[in-house]
Specification:
Elements (H helix, E strand, L loop, with lengths): L8 H8 L14 E2 L18 E2 L2 E2 L17 H5 L1 H8 L6 E5 L5 H10 L4 E6 L2 H13 L5 E5 L12 E7 L8 H11 E13 L12 E2 L1 H8 L5 E6 L5 E7 L6 H5 L2
Parallel strand pairs: 4-5, 4-7, 5-6, 7-8, 8-9
Antiparallel strand pairs: 1-10, 2-3, 8-11, 10-11
Bound molecules: S-adenosylmethionine (SAM).
Length: 258
């Protein structure tokens, strides 16, 4: 896999506050049906600027720090292939890599969905998508489509996506509700929405607090937007893998019986 052009590592350290002490021990894959209940939402929200539901919204990671996304230690820290194994992605699927950056995960997804599948790689930064396109070309990968999204519009086709994945992205979204509603539209009924986020519950995870999310916070934000919590995997050294689905449409005759 070709790496993106090098930009100063310093920028990354400044943005994410990363330092790299010993990793947690690898644990066997485990999926938990967590018990956290999401409160029902009724009134329109009035969050203080730069916050959402009581947490700060992180700054978007600049393309100038893209080198960090392909750092040598990332495989050991994030175990991307084990993460994708847990999601059981099938050949031929349409998968959206939201906030794809320079394509670290998109390239892996492209191999998994194969030539009959598609990866829709979105990002709000054109420079990130340019790096991603270069990396895909260098790797000879042809099934990744770069999509320039905005904070209020995913720019994805409606009802076509089997799985939407956000690796280390959601905490940067400045309009989380627009993002979640856009993803709900883009997903097929029964399609999955997956968050890979650094654990806020663990002070040992060496990432700045605003770049981490707790499981409870993710559920609190996502469920009121009409997603159903499916499962949570905690086998990665530093990150949650949190899986939701867009509820399937119920057949008309089933609805009449209510
Ligand atoms: C920390 S990087 C992670 C990149 C990639 N997912 C990876 O793991 O290598 C976060 C990326 O999300 C993008 N981003 C932030 N908010 C976004 C949004 N609402 N929609 C799409 N991309 C977004 C940023 O531009 C940045 O490229």
């Amino acid at each position: 896999m070709t790496r993106p052009r090098l930009y100063p590592l310093l920028a990354v350290v400044l943005i994410l506050g990363v330092h790299l002490p010993g990793l947690a021990q690898e644990a066997p894959p485990a999926s938990t049906k967590a018990e956290v209940k999401a409160p029902a939402r009724s009134k329109p929200r009035r969050d203080p600027p730069g916050t959402y539901m009581g947490r700060p919204i992180a700054q978007v990671m600049t393309y100038q720090a893209a080198d960090w996304l392909f750092r040598d230690t990332r495989e050991a820290e994030e175990q991307p292939e084990r993460m994708l194994d847990a999601l059981k992605i099938q050949p031929g699927e349409t998968v959206a890599d939201i906030g794809a950056g320079a394509g670290y995960t998109s390239l892996r997804l492209a191999r998994r969905v194969g030539p009959t599948g598609t990866v829709l790689a979105t990002d709000v930064q054109t420079q990130m998508l340019a790096l991603l396109t270069d990396n895909a070309r260098a790797a000879g990968v042809k099934n990744i489509k770069a999509v320039r999204s905005t904070q209020s519009d995913t720019k994805l086709p409606e009802g076509k996506v089997d799985l939407a994945l956000m690796v280390d992205v959601y905490h940067e979204a400045s309009n989380p509700e627009a993002l979640l509603q856009g993803l709900k539209k883009a997903l097929k009924p029964g399609g999955r929405l997956v968050f890979v986020e650094f654990r806020a519950e663990d002070p040992e995870v060496p990432i700045k607090p605003e770049h981490k999310m707790s499981l409870a916070q993710v559920r609190r934000e996502v469920e009121p937007q009409g997603f159903r919590f499916v499962e949570n995997f905690e086998f990665l050294p530093w990150q949650h893998i949190i899986v939701f689905e867009k509820p399937k449409d119920r057949p008309a005759d089933e609805k009449k019986e209510d």
